[in-house]
Amino acid sequence: MVAENERQAADGGGVLGVGCSHSRHSRGGHSVFDVMGQAFAETPLRDLLLDAIQYGEQPAVRNRMYEVIDSTVGEGLEDLLDERALAVEHFSDADLRALRTAMDEARARRLQPHDIASVFKGAFTRLGGRIVARERGRHEIAHVPQRVRSAANGPIATRYDHVTFDLGHVRPDARAHVDLLAPGHPLHDAVMAETIRTFGSALNRGTVLVSPTLEEPHLLVGMVEEVADANGASVARRFAYVYVDSRGTVRPAGLAPYLDCADAPDGASADIACGLPWLADAEAEATSWIIANRLPAYLAEVQPRRLAELVRTRELVTKRLTSEKERLLLDAAAASEKERRGEKPKESSASLHRKAAGLDVRLRKRLALLDQQQSMSTKPPQILAAALVLSVPGPPSRK
Fold first, then answer.
1. How far apart are CA 369 and CA 314, in angstroms?
2. Average pLDDT value over all residues in the chain
3. What is the distance between the alpha carbons of residues 345 and 339, in angstroms, rounded to a whole number?
4. What is the per-residue pLDDT across 306-316, written as a single tens digit (0 to 9) for each?
5. Rg of the chain, C-alpha, whole Å
6. Spatial contact of 241 and 221, defined as CB atoms under 8 Å apart
7. What gap in Å lies between CA 52 and CA 65, rounded to an integer?
8. For the chain, which end, N or C, has fewer CB atoms within 10 Å of the first or last residue's CB respectively?
9. How far apart are CA 304 and CA 310, in angstroms?
10. CB of 10 within 8 A of CB of 49?
11. Residue 10, pLDDT above cutoff 90
């Protein structure tokens, strides 16, 4: 029995169930035995299995096996995962500082609960809805208009007893269900969609704000910067704000410049401001500045990282499909030999040859796609928001 178990273990199958008797696994295919075996650098997995079969009941052998596995398999699997990983990055101190900065920027750009609440309440009320505050951080929606329910992509109730805009006020163990109104909730998205449909023309005209940080009127422009490959697929996108003054000078506006702004009071000031002659060319100035000063640096930042991913992808795809093709050809040769002897194989040699040829075509198409993905360029910036920002309430100078 021991000898039979040894033979089966050596073939990659048998009583331990770590392998498979199929030919692909005995020729270095993607089997559990092959992958796990590579994790043991010094003590071969096969030797451990044979020891387990013959002497596994002896405490000394069992303890030695645990020591070998504990000390080597973790490190071996880590090396194996690094080898097969699609993207392998080593972070230096500079990289970590840049990552922290990017996370801080993302945090600053993130919509805050009070911002979502302010926009939703104003839009919902304009559309005929009724929302009232109840307890701290929670509200009740007594009526959802039909026009809002019709604009929804998901189910919307006619009323909500408990809603909140802050995740901190959602308690899973609470007796009453509380809806979190935020982007993604059917009611929130329906209100935004209906608001844009109804008041879209006002959004296109822009708005007038006031900021204590400015000494003269500026146009605040928000636009999307994007890097795409030769197929037109987006590789990376980000949002940027710039200020344009009356002389056409453009400068970065920071992460969230609107936080320093307030609504401009109604009156002649806003009317005069909207008629400033230099506003006609301000958006074009902002677009030209972004193209010349920010997009080249953005492409230089994105391209090396993306190229490294594509090179690694090419290596892994080529290795995997080539290995599979070789397996099919070996199986085809074995099937052809059975057919020559008058036996019927599990799959005919002709079918296996067709599958191998199909993998060749698949590999060529995949590599051609990777070639196209390696060619990257920036798209023209797309303006999504604009606002005239005044320095103080009152008529601005006509420059």
1. 10
2. 77
3. 7
4. 999 899 999 99
5. 32
6. yes
7. 8
8. N
9. 10
10. no
11. no
**How far apart, in whole angstroms, are the C-alpha atoms of residue 224 and residue 240?**
6
Chain position carrying tokens 């805050």 = 112
Could you tell me the pTM of the whole model?
A: 0.59
Q: Judge whether 194 and 151 are in contact, CB under 8 Å.
A: yes
Rounded Cα gap, residues 121 and 111, in angstroms: 15
Tokens (6 digits) for 263: 């609504």
Amino acid at 69: I
pLDDT of residue 387 exceeding 80, the answer is yes
Helix 2-10 vs helix 45-55: angle between axes, to the nearest 10 degrees? 160
> Cα–Cα distance between 34 and 28 in angstroms, integer?
6
Alpha-helical (H) ranges within the chain are 2-10, 32-37, 45-55, 59-84, 93-109, 113-126, 146-150, 186-205, 268-274, 279-293, 295-340, 349-374
- The pair of structure tokens assigned to 232 is 């037109």
Q: Give residue 19's pLDDT.
A: 35
What is the residue whose two structure tokens read 């900021």? Answer: 211
CA–CA distance, 385 with 264 (Å, rounded to integer)? 17
Tokens representing residue 147 in the block: 């026009």
Q: How far apart are CA 268 and CA 130, in angstroms?
A: 33
Structure-token match 């795809």, residue found: 317
